[in-house]
């Protein structure tokens, strides 16, 4: 069988968006290559999710096992290695998320198949798997070709594909778990939620967001003054939190908060995809960056190429003058 | 606690102009400033912190040309004890899989309880080497680690960063590979004096022949993927670019704010 397989990603009882994004892409690929699409669902007590996936694939391959209740790479690898050997799909898609980054490379190594990670597109052409990846922080695209192999693994960057509505007459196929012994080398302990902070940036009408381009903690107050003048909340991209210049609760992005303000002003933010994923739903995006090729300009509505240390103070003065 | 840290010297491209080189498969790095891969810097710091807490040694390993010695010396100045550089013409063109194999063969004979890598590299961004390395060495792993809570009884209690501010706490048997997320600590400042102090420290250099690897197991031959070409991302819808003096830019932004409902 020359199937396209999509590994369903779920957490705390919910299928994650990336699953449906990959299924949309998988359906198109299956149509192009005249094959079929299967969703692979591993878990415990996940019958409801299998039903949700039913009309999104030709088959839902379901493996239930109490040891799969929470994600454990050891358990997942054992089950998937066995399953893939038996089913022999042409291609397995896994999300390039905290889940897929942990699982996919070691799985591919274990089953001795080629892998390309963090891909924004994938095709099968003349029997070869080709993928597009981004490098150098999104400034350049790379086309990679996987060496010929019966199977390949591709990890897909979240939000690379838009979920489409479609309906397939899928069937749920339950496969017995091949696991016999307990996994002792790795044990899930618990989930920890980030502590809620004093500011909820998801509720702000306007966000003034600052990134690595601010250079130094001492320059943060300059941006805060602009935010205050606008009655906006101050948010930031990951490097600012990593350097402990602002608390985690202010971080916009996949590992921080998803925001949808009316206006998002990105200051000195290059636009790594993890950040963009958290703010692209904003009504109007204005980006200020000194690099005209910064990826942020492809998602922004308005762009200013220039020195933020000159523009931000001038903007603050103008705002005070007009709105005071 | 013997810890091995894999580090990489990468060009800083966040604010630099990128030019595709004549092969069409990479960028022209002439004129670019290089530094330690940001995630690896956190990994080195974490290793040194663990050594300070639990004792033991830290060995840093890097695959790359002679210039990678800068990165290794930087790590030595931060507190690493030993440095190994892996270099051979046969290594060029290695993908994430082949890089992991080369690193793995260098690390295999060493004593280690823990191997740390950065979550990903700033240049190629594979995010693949750590978990692949673990599988090759037959040990466990955890990716995107943002806290090492404690280590005792041959096990580690660690936190993995998930999406949306959620973390997963795991209990993991050692030895294991952890890929370290940025922000896990505050990497110490490395002064020029500090680097000078370790200038005479030996950096072991190993090549293909030292690693019990065949030529076809490294480089492009030993890779599972091949770069066909690099190209500039197609311009999206793109932003409407505002131009003019600082004063007129400020005015434009204010009128956008009025129009788009950000402000009354």
Strand content of chain B: 25-35%
| DSSP helix fraction of chain A | 25-40%
Give the H and E element order of chain B: EEEHEHEHEHEEEEHEEEH
Catalogue the unreliable spans of chain B.
none
- Biggest beta sheet attributes of chain A: 9 strands, mixed
Principal-axis shape of chain A equals elongated
- Main beta-sheet annotation of chain B: 9 strands, mixed
Overall pLDDT level of chain A: 95
Lay out the secondary structure:
The complex is a heterodimer of chains A (324) and B (264).
Chain A: E1 4-7, E2 10-11, E3 14-15, H1 17-33, E4 37-43, H2 47-53, E5 59-64, H3 73-87, E6 91-95, H4 98-110, E7 115-125, E8 128-135, E9 140-146, E10 152-156, E11 171-175, E12 186-193, E13 206-210, H5 220-230, E14 233-236, H6 238-242, E15 263-267, H7 273-279, E16 284-289, E17 302-305, H8 308-323
Parallel strand pairs in A: 1-4, 1-6, 4-5, 5-11, 6-10, 7-10, 13-14, 13-15, 15-16, 16-17
Antiparallel strand pairs in A: 2-3, 7-8, 8-9
Helix pairs in contact in A: 3-4, 5-8
Chain B: E1 2-7, E2 9-11, E3 34-36, H1 38-54, E4 57-63, H2 68-78, E5 82-86, H3 96-107, E6 114-118, H4 129-137, E7 140-152, E8 155-161, E9 166-173, E10 176-180, H5 192-197, E11 203-206, E12 225-231, E13 240-242, H6 246-259
Parallel strand pairs in B: 1-4, 1-6, 4-5, 5-11, 6-10, 7-10
Antiparallel strand pairs in B: 2-3, 7-8, 8-9
Helix pairs in contact in B: 3-4
Protein model, in words:
The complex is a heterodimer of chains A (324) and B (264). Chain A is elongated. In chain A, helix 3 crosses helix 4 and helix 5 (220-230) runs parallel beside helix 8 (308-323). By secondary structure, chain A is an alpha/beta fold. Chain A has helices at 17-33, 47-53, 73-87, 98-110, 220-230, 238-242, 273-279, 308-323; strands spanning 4-7, 10-11, 14-15, 37-43, 59-64, 91-95, 115-125, 128-135, 140-146, 152-156, 171-175, 186-193, 206-210, 233-236, 263-267, 284-289, 302-305. The termini of chain A are far apart. In chain A, the strands form three sheets. Chain A has a nine-stranded mixed sheet with strand order 9-8-7-10-6-1-4-5-11, sandwiched between helices. Chain A has a five-stranded parallel sheet with strand order 14-13-15-16-17. A two-stranded antiparallel ribbon of chain A has the order 2-3. The longest helix of chain A has 17 residues, at 17-33. Chain B has 264 residues and is α/β, with parallel strands linked by helices. Chain B has helices at residues 38-54, 68-78, 96-107, 129-137, 192-197, 246-259, and strands at 2-7, 9-11, 34-36, 57-63, 82-86, 114-118, 140-152, 155-161, 166-173, 176-180, 203-206, 225-231, 240-242. Chain B has a nine-stranded mixed sheet, with helices on both faces. In chain B, strand 4 (57-63), helix 2 and strand 5 form a beta-alpha-beta unit. Chain B starts with a strand and ends in a 5-residue tail after the last helix. The model of chain B has no long low-confidence stretch (mean pLDDT 95). At the A-B interface, helix 4, strand 7, strand 8, strand 9 and strand 12 of A face helix 3, helix 4, strand 7, strand 8 and strand 9 of B. Strand 12 of chain A pairs antiparallel with strand 9 of chain B, so a sheet runs across the interface.
């Amino acid at each position: 069988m020359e199937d396209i397989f999509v590994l369903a990603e779920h957490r705390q009882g919910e299928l994650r968006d990336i699953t449906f994004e990959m299924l949309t892409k998988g359906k198109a690929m299956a149509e192009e290559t005249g094959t079929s699409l299967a969703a692979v669902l591993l878990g415990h007590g996940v019958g409801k999710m299998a039903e949700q996936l039913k009309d999104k694939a030709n088959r839902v391959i379901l493996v239930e096992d109490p040891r799969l209740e929470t994600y454990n790479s050891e358990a997942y690898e054992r089950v998937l290695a066995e399953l893939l050997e038996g089913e022999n799909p042409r291609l397995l898609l896994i999300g390039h998320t905290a889940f897929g980054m942990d699982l996919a490379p070691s799985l591919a190594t274990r089953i001795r198949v080629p892998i390309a990670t963090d891909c924004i597109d994938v095709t099968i052409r003349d029997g070869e798997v080709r993928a597009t990846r981004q490098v150098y922080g999104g400034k350049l695209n790379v086309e990679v070709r996987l060496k010929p192999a019966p199977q390949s693994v591709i990890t897909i960057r979240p939000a690379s594909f838009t979920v489409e509505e479609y309906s397939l007459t899928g069937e749920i196929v339950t496969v017995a778990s091949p696991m016999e012994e307990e996994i002792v080398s790795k044990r899930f302990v618990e989930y920890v939620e980030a502590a809620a902070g004093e500011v909820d940036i998801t509720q702000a009408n306007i966000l003034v967001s600052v990134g690595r381009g601010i250079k130094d903690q001492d320059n943060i107050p300059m941006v805060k003054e602009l935010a205050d003048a606008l009655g906006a909340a101050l948010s930031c991209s990951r490097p600012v939190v990593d350097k402990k210049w602002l608390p985690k609760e202010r971080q916009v992005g996949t590992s921080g908060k998803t925001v949808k303000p009316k206006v998002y002003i990105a200051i000195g933010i290059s636009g790594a995809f993890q950040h963009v994923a958290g703010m692209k739903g904003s009504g109007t995006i204005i980006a200020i960056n000194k690099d005209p090729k910064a990826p942020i300009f492809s998602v922004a509505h308005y762009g200013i190429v220039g020195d933020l240390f000159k523009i931000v103070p001038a903007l603050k003065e103008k705002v005070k003058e007009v709105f005071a | 606690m013997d810890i091995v840290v894999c580090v990489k010297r990468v060009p800083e491209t966040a604010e630099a102009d990128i030019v595709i080189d004549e092969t069409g498969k990479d960028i022209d790095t002439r004129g670019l400033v290089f530094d330690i891969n940001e995630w690896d810097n956190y990994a080195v710091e974490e290793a040194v912190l663990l050594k300070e807490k639990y004792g033991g040694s830290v060995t840093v390993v890097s695959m790359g040309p002679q210039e990678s010695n800068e990165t290794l010396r930087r790590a030595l100045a931060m507190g690493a004890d030993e440095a190994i550089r892996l270099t051979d013409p046969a290594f060029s063109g290695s993908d994430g899989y082949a890089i992991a194999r080369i690193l793995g063969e260098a690390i295999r004979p060493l004593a280690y309880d823990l191997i740390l890598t950065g979550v990903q590299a700033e240049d190629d961004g594979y995010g693949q080497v750590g978990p692949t390395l673990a599988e090759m060495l037959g040990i466990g792993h955890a990716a995107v680690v943002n806290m090492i809570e404690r280590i005792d009884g041959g096990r580690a209690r660690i936190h993995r960063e998930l999406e949306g501010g959620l973390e997963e706490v795991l209990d993991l048997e050692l030895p294991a590979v952890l890929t370290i997320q940025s922000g896990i600590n505050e990497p110490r400042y490395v002064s020029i004096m500090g680097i000078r102090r370790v200038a005479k420290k030996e950096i072991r250099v190993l090549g293909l022949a030292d690693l019990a690897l065949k030529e076809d197991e490294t480089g492009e031959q030993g890779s599972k993927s091949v770069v066909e070409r690099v190209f500039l991302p197609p311009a999206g819808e793109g932003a409407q670019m505002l131009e003019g003096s600082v004063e007129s830019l400020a005015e434009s932004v204010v009128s956008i704010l009025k129009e788009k409902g950000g402000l009354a």
